[in-house]
Every structure is written in structure tokens, then in C-alpha cells.
Design brief:
- By secondary structure, the protein is α+β, with helices and mostly antiparallel strands.
- The chain folds into 2 domains: 87 residues, TATA-Binding Protein (2-Layer Sandwich), CATH 3.30.310; 35 residues, no CATH class.
- It has 3 helices and 7 strands; from the N terminus they run αββββαβββα.
- This is Reverse transcriptase Ty1/copia-type domain-containing protein.
């Protein structure tokens, strides 16, 4: 590996940095493979449109969906028992911290309409525009 002209650094720092990057990528890939295997062992399937969204449909018509983004997980479903079972199984393989009901994900606020059993998400930009009266 050669350093760019004018940016020469003596010692092994550049090589060490590249090795750390490679190990980081490999570590991330291994972590995801382990996560994917754990989800499959619980009969969850990836959606065809996104490798980080898993769904399990149950015979009673219910479902549980899991969204994975970097190190955040959002789990949704009607049956708290099924959700808690998934959390329990995941916590056997991964260090997890349950933060309770989600307030936001990926910069979007989550709004619950418990009376009508709905979840809504609002982008901060859209929410701000609504508050300003622009929309």
C-alpha cells in the first residue's frame, strides 16, 4: 500500500488504520450474519424489498415486524407476548437494552393513536412545516 504524494506518514499508522477498517467491515458482516441466523431460527423472514426488515406471520393472522438499522431495532405488532418472546430470544444472543415504547426512529417522530390502533410517523421537516402552517 502506498501513501499519496505529499501525505507521507512514517511508521505503521496507515496500515493499522486500514486493518482496523477491514476488521470493522468484517465484524459488521459477521454480526449481521449472526443476527440474520437468529431471526431465521425464530421463523422470521426478510422482506423482499429490504434485508433489514423481518416479519413473522402467525396462523391467527397476527404478525410481528422488526426493523434493524445499524444498532437500533424497532419491533411492532399487536401481541405484546409475541413481541416479548422475540426480545427474549434476541437477548440470549445479543447485548440488548429495552428503551420502552419508541418515540422516534431514523429521525421520524412516532405518533400513536391507541384508540384507532394506529401508528403514524412524521418526518421532522413535515412536522415543522405543519406547525408553521405551510402544509
Amino acid at each position: 500500500m502506498e501513501q499519496p504524494e505529499g501525505f507521507e506518514v512514517s511508521g505503521d499508522n496507515l496500515v493499522q488504520a486500514k486493518e482496523k477498517l477491514v476488521w470493522s467491515e468484517a465484524g459488521t458482516r459477521q454480526w449481521y450474519k449472526k443476527f440474520d441466523s437468529c431471526m431465521k431460527s425464530q421463523a422470521y423472514k426478510k422482506t423482499t424489498t429490504d434485508d433489514c426488515v423481518y416479519i413473522q406471520k402467525f396462523l391467527d393472522g397476527d404478525f410481528v415486524a422488526l426493523l434493524l438499522y445499524v444498532d437500533d431495532i424497532l419491533i411492532v405488532g399487536k401481541d405484546a407476548t409475541k413481541i416479548n418472546q422475540l426480545k427474549k430470544e434476541l437477548s440470549k444472543s445479543f447485548d440488548m437494552k429495552d428503551l420502552g415504547s419508541a418515540q422516534q426512529i431514523l429521525g421520524m417522530q412516532i405518533v400513536r393513536d391507541r384508540m384507532n390502533r394506529r401508528l403514524l410517523h412524521l418526518s421532522r421537516n413535515i412536522l415543522n412545516e405543519c406547525l408553521k402552517g405551510s402544509i
